[in-house]
Every structure is written in C-alpha cells, then in structure tokens.
Amino acid sequence: MFTGIIEAVGTIRALENRGGDVRLDIQAGTLDMSDVKLGDSIATNGVCLTAVVLSHDSFVADVSRETLNRTGLAALKPGSSVNLEKAMRANGRLDGHIVSGHVDGVGKILSIEPSARSMRYRVEAPTKLAHYIAEKGSITIDGVSLTVNAVEGAVFEVNIVPHTAEQTIIHHYRPGSRVNLEVDIIARYLERLLHGRMADNEDDHTPESKLTESFLTSHGFTGRRR
Length: 226
Prior knowledge:
- By secondary structure, this protein is mainly beta.
- Among the domains are: 8-86, Elongation Factor Tu (Ef-tu), domain 3 (Beta Barrel); 105-183, Beta Barrel (Elongation Factor Tu (Ef-tu), domain 3).
- Helix content is 12%, strand content 38%.
- It is built from four helices and twelve strands; from the N terminus they run E-E-E-E-E-H-E-E-E-E-E-E-H-E-H-H.
- A six-stranded antiparallel barrel has the order 1-2-5-4-3-6. The protein has a six-stranded antiparallel beta barrel with strand order 7-8-11-10-9-12.
C-alpha cells in the first residue's frame, strides 16, 4: 500500500525488452534507498513495481505485459521522469489516501488553466471509471493523491498547488498527456459489496450481503437520511 505522497522524482535510465515484457532501470533521484530491500515495492507513476536489482541510488523492476497494457508505462523511454514512492509503513502517517498501486485506467489531460497561484487540470477518465469519481473524493494521478474538485460525466478537475507541481512530474503535463489513474479503493469495494455477491457465478452460494444502499442511507453514509 501507498499514500499518494510522492517522495522523489526519478529518471528512466534504460528499458530492456524481455520476451514481450520490459525491464526498467530507474535512477531514484532523491529517494532514500537505504532501507529498500530486494522484493520491496516502489510505486512508479502510481504503478506498484517490485525491486529486483538494487544499488544505492537506483533500482530495476520488471513490468509485465498486463501492466504495460493497462497503464502508461509502455510510453516511457530513457530520460522520462517518473514519480516515486516507497511502500507505506504500518506505523507511518497516511497523509494522502489509501493507494494500492494497481492502476485502473489511463486518462487524458484536456486542459490546464491558472487558478490564482495554483493550476486547474481537467482530466478525462475512461468511461467505465466515471461512476467511481466523486466531487471532493480522492483520486490518484500518476501516483499523486489528489482531491476531485468537480465532476461532469467522465471529466473531472483537480487543483494543483505550486508545491505539488514542483515535487512531482505534474509540471511536465500538457493537454493530451496520458496519465495513470487509480480510483478510490473504498469506492471499488463498496460497489462490489452492494452487488450482494462475491462472484457472478450462478452456482456461488455465498449469502447475499446485507450492506445495501438503503442500509447505508439509513445510517448516514450516503449523505441522505430517510
């Protein structure tokens, strides 16, 4: 698990094709590698990757075909900048929100406009993710935990303060840039619970869940009370 608070910006040093998937060599920038061990997870542009080779200032990770197909990592090249975050410690602060590092889809930057000292970004998400995105809810863009300011269909807005822009790769974005999106993990699991079954298989005899929309409403979880 991660928090969506970026610890450093790294650089892709090399990409090696290996039988259909890719091995990435990543210079870790200012990321503290002193406590990273082989097999540890490091979120790279929001994608949870496993460190298979380590040095004092870099790591190597393998990227599967599945990950290449579902994220924007396939577009990386030597010299590309990437957001980096080490896995969250159980005794650490959760400053952003709970981030799994499992990207749900790739979005597109539609526009960038100034808003006082900040910048307002309009982002188009894949249509299938739209119902997970809520105003004032959380979303992860290339590993950065952000608050959704507005939503219209599959298009949402986020406000980027100067510090976030300076400490991440967000200042590199332009209209048309493709970005990794991870929706709020709570929204995903809540939807699954509301379906009432753990699987769609007709032979599944799992009892129906009592966690229904009316139950949540009556207990004040949906913002409406009967």
